[in-house]
Amino acid sequence: MDAGVVTPNLTVELLRVYADRPRPRSVAVVGPRPMPADPGRATAIDACDLVIRVGEYVCDEPDGPPAVGVRTHAVVFDRALRATKWVFADYRSKLYLLVEPGPAYPDPRDLPRWWPVDLGFVPVPAREFTRPLIRALAPTHPADAPDTAAERERPDSGTPGPETPATGTVAAWIARTSFPDAELVLAGLGPGGSGPGDDPRPAEDALLDSWAGTGTARLLP
Is 101's pLDDT higher than 90? Predict the structure, then answer.
């Protein structure tokens, strides 16, 4: 798979290809937050037609207690990824989606130095996914205001923009907007959909909670 900027339709089509079925009936987004053993949670995640894991995620060990399942169809990550042994396990069978809501890089097709040389990735289109998410989190954000950290750092950028969303929140947004009719299962997402130890993000927490409150997502404790 060659790296390159793709259209949102192609992003969704790629997810369909890697999922168990072209029209997933259920999608799980699993973050890297450590979670206690729970066979029910692990079974619910592995039962989904599409399992998206975020960042430096972990899976259950073959001889360990079930907690977050073992199946992975797609990985959503950013360049700050600290890869665990699961991230690149059987990588030829997974779709890798790079989120760059922060500082822009000269060429989004450039592979990080630590990336496997025979593995490509697909940059997540900011215009179709990250920017609508930012506006959903900050409805009063002016339409012409900068949407990325790189733009906001420019002296001539104008009105300061909102905080960029956590990678886990972006992954959940991709799942929700790409497959609106599928059951959405969320687990292991820390404050604001991010990993463990990150600062609280009230707007992101409120968004995910609103999905659960309206029945459009199921949060697994």
Answer: no
Per-residue pLDDT band at 196 (split at 50, 70, 90): low
pLDDT single digits (tens) 14-59: 999 999 999 999 999 999 999 999 999 999 999 999 999 999 999 9
The whole-number pLDDT of residue 57 equals 96
The answer to whether the CB of 122 falls within 8 A of the CB of 97 is yes
